[in-house]
Design goal:
The protein is of the alpha/beta class. Helix content is 38%, strand content 22%. The chain has 4 domains: 3-207, NAD(P)-binding Rossmann-like Domain (Rossmann fold), CATH 3.40.50; 294-451, Rossmann fold (3-Layer(aba) Sandwich); 501-577, ATP-grasp fold, A domain (Dna Ligase, domain 1, 2-Layer Sandwich); 583-717, D-amino Acid Aminotransferase, Chain A, domain 1 (2-Layer Sandwich). Strand 26 (583-592) and strand 27 form a beta hairpin. Helix 14 packs parallel to helix 15.
Length: 718
């Protein structure tokens, strides 16, 4: 028996700290094990009791000679280490440490927690907790927790980092008549964490949908691997709390400032196919639909309702979600006109009128299921004088073929409760409003789209890695962690970016010579490893048109910058070709400590500064994903070109993102990168790097998370 198998499917369980007093954790756990009907051997351990709840009690597990698969430890913190030693001596293959007061309390508790984990690791025993609720496996009739309720066996398994939220999830599931397969509280995650359980539940035949509440993730790299594997086989829905902006406070680039913990988790979830729930309600709204209904084959939604207003609400929600209100096939519409009352609306939403009897709903449901133009159905019922909620629910359930998802919104209170009960009994997800029903359908559609995605083809461009290695190595050896514009452009040129011709001048005459070589007009910019925002100090001059203007600009910039930043090292002025006009965009990267390089795209100017219309994606990135980044911005229409305005070369921007992806995957020393602005024009006109900067990280043993990113990557060299 494996360690996680011993945790989830034990044949014998010891409860160390079993109590005779109702309300104490040790008593409630033992009582739950008995009430749940656990068929294995139960061994309560308490030196002060001979019998608890009708079971003979052991004074000392180690001395008893008994052998156990699973040991549950519910003793005070001071006795936890001894209890664990006794459990290991009794042959326990897994342990659950219910006891609290470890790293969440103080340094002494943190040290003790490490000792417990180390002791288990030395014996290859897996530990759940400490500071956890325990676990429930309804199919094994195992309630090894101090939760007050036991769910019916079901298809949804739950991982929760919060014991309190686990009990709320359990109460909600029971209240909705929703069965659960497993509920596992992971507590402090000293050993077993969300990755271990994702892998276990992916292989679990009793689990159809995985639901998780997480406050943090132990390993971003391993999480993406495990979540991708799980999502490829069954839906994974996560409610993530505890995101933080702390990591971006020290950022110097636009990309770093705009990215944050929550952005990184969102990007990781998208990469892994995880369905993200933003609220506690959504967590089970989505899980219910995915556990009970088939995935939609498209995004065309039919709405059937007995009231016009709720039907319109549903139609609005469908369009706002980016799905389509289905247009009925002409044969379907014709058949419905013959069968429904003349006053009924045959458009979508289909209004079967307030006096609709069950058979009228059935007529529409049967037609919709046969219509090839319909991918999913929302059924709305409001309580009116002649409405029969229970009979309607039974009739709808009886006519379903099961090849298209159906979600219901039986709106109201007491009057529709009988109908809701019938829907639950028939495994039809029901929601209190059309909007929530449609959001569940949207989650199903997005997951189905992810499941049917083509293999990810990541392009590897021919580049000059040695040049980049030299630049980065020299800067880090010199103790500099900023790559200014000149060196950043050198790095980008080595990776295939187009940069304007330019030269570094250390005096005014060199600046004139450079300008004459390039040709007027030119741009001039101060060069200093200590100055990030050059424009703020008067360190940028554009459209310089002759030699005298170059000399004046050089002298003035050097003077102003030395006065305003007296400690800054001024290396000179960079003179470069003045670029022709185009659309200014920003592309960049910020390296998240958990998930690795996060690529960013947005329009320049007000769009990034004020509107923050930017989008992020984890590297490595495919061309398809890069183009999806562009489409996901609110300003995408400006890129495409609308109303007589010409669009820009979208493929060139996408390739720029791919080249940054390759650069930052190849060089984990780059912690931040901004190309701002990246000037793009029409198809055929190469995009140009107008300005750039990078931040380096001198971590010698840095591991690049993106190198081992999962999920069907095919490499293509060009």
């Amino acid at each position: 028996m494996s360690s996680l198998e011993a945790l989830l499917y034990p044949h014998s369980v010891a409860v160390i700290g079993a109590s005779r007093t109702p309300g104490k954790v040790g008593h409630d756990i033992l009582a739950n094990l008995i009430r749940s009907g656990f068929a294995g051997k139960l061994l309560p351990v308490n030196p002060a009791a001979e019998e608890i709840l009708g079971l003979p009690c052991l004074a000392d597990l180690r001395k008893s000679g008994e052998k156990v698969d699973l040991s549950i430890i519910a003793v005070p913190r001071a006795r936890a280490e001894a209890a664990l030693s006794d459990s290991l001596a009794a042959g326990a293959k897994a342990v659950i440490v219910i006891t609290a007061g470890f790293k969440e309390m103080d340094e002494e508790g943190a040290a003790l927690e490490k000792r417990l984990a180390s002791l288990c690791a030395s014996r290859r025993v897996r530990m759940l907790g400490p500071n956890c609720l325990g676990l429930i496996n309804s199919h094994h009739r195992l309630n090894a927790s101090f939760a007050s309720r036991m769910p019916a066996p079901g298809l949804i398994s739950v991982i929760s980092q919060s014991g309190a939220l686990a009990t709320a999830i359990l109460d909600l599931a029971v209240g909705r008549h929703l069965g659960l397969a497993k509920l596992i509280s992971i507590g402090n995650k000293a050993d077993i964490n969300e990755v271990d359980l994702l892998l276990a539940l992916t292989a679990d035949q009793e689990t159809k949908v995985i639901v998780a509440y997480l406050e943090d993730i132990t390993s971003g790299e391993n999480f993406i691997k495990a979540a991708s594997e799980a999502s490829s086989r069954k839906p994974v829905i996560i409610l993530k709390s505890g995101t933080t902006d702390a990591g971006r406070k020290a950022a110097s680039s636009h990309t770093g400032v705009l990215s944050g913990g929550d952005i990184a988790y969102g990007a990781a979830f998208r990469r892994a196919g995880v369905i993200r729930a933003d609220t506690f309600e959504e967590l089970f709204d989505y899980a219910t639909a995915l556990a009970m209904q088939p995935l939609p084959k498209g995004d065309r939604v039919l709405i059937v309702t007995n009231a016009g207003g709720p039907g319109t609400m549903a139609a609005d929600a469908v369009e706002q979600a980016g799905m389509q209100v289905a247009v009925l096939d002409s044969n379907t519409a014709g058949a419905l006109r013959e069968k429904l009352p003349r006053a009924a609306s045959i458009g979508n939403p289909i209004d079967v009128l307030g006096d609709a009897e069950p058979e009228r709903y059935v007529t529409v449901m049967k037609a919709a299921q046969e219509d090839p133009a319909v991918d999913a159905i929302v059924v709305i019922l409001t309580p009116q004088a002649m409405t029969q909620p229970a009979a309607t629910a039974r009739a709808i359930a009886a006519c379903l073929k099961g090849d298209k998802p159906v979600v219901a919104a039986f709106m109201g209170g007491d009057d529709v409760m009988p109908g809701r009960a019938e829907l639950a009994a028939a495994n039809l997800p029901d929601y209190p409003s059309p909007e929530r029903a449609v959001k569940a359908l949207k989650a199903m559609h997005d997951y189905a789209t992810w499941r049917s995605r083509p293999p990810r083809i990541v392009t590897r461009f021919r580049v000059n890695r040695r040049r980049v290695e030299r630049v980065i190595t020299r800067r880090l050896r010199a103790g500099h962690h900023q790559l200014g514009e000149v060196r950043s452009k050198s790095v980008l040129a080595a990776y295939g970016f187009h940069v304007p011709e330019g030269y570094l001048a250390t005096n005014a005459e060199e600046a004139v010579e450079a300008a004459e070589r390039i040709g007027y007009p030119v741009a001039m910019k101060i060069v200093s490893p200590d100055i990030i925002h050059k424009s703020d100090l008067g360190g940028v001059r554009l459209n310089v048109i002759d030699a005298n203007a170059v000399r004046d600009a050089f002298d003035l910039m050097m003077l102003r910058c030395s006065q305003r930043e007296s400690a800054a090292l001024l290396e000179g002025v960079y003179v470069e070709k003045m670029l022709s006009k185009g659309l200014e965009v920003i592309i960049g990267m910020n390296r998240d400590p958990q998930f690795g390089p996060m690529l960013m795209f947005g329009l320049g100017g007000i769009f990034v500064e004020v509107m923050k219309d930017v989008t992020f994606h984890l590297a490595p990135i495919s061309e398809t994903e890069a183009l999806q980044m562009l489409r996901s911005t609110r300003s995408y229409e400006m890129l495409e070109g609308r109303r007589g305005r010409k669009g820009v070369d979208l493929a060139a921007i996408a390739q720029g993102l791919q080249r940054i992806s390759q650069l930052t995957t190849d060089f984990p020393q780059i912690s931040e990168l901004d190309i701002n602005p990246f000037i793009v024009g029409e198809v055929g006109r190469p995009p140009m790097v107008a300005d750039a900067r990078m931040t380096l990280d001198n971590l010698e043993h840095h591991h690049d998370l993106a190198r081992s990113a999962p999920a069907c990557i095919v490499l293509k060299s060009v």
